[in-house]
Write a structure and sequence with these properties.
AadA_C; single chain; mainly alpha
Length: 98
Amino acid sequence: MRKFGKGNSLHSVDWLLLASKFIAWWQEGVILSKSHAADWGLLHLSSGWKENLKRCKELRKDPSMVTSLEYSEWLSNLEPAIIEASHNLDSVLETTIH
């Protein structure tokens, strides 16, 4: 995620949705769709990057919104959230493995 997870693309949202999906699976043993992972993350995650999950889900439901100025600017600034999500995922894995 840290190496390839860049902003500025509709597909950038998948990095955050996958992080939420993997954390849910690791912590609760549930397999969620990406849209359900967004909902789960908003309820269960405490990291700041989770606030992006609402927009991620909105773009999955209506990808045409990517052309709006609001969403294109948001996507162009998404890389820090992707990096934070990858660190959060690492932390979850490390704390449950040890």
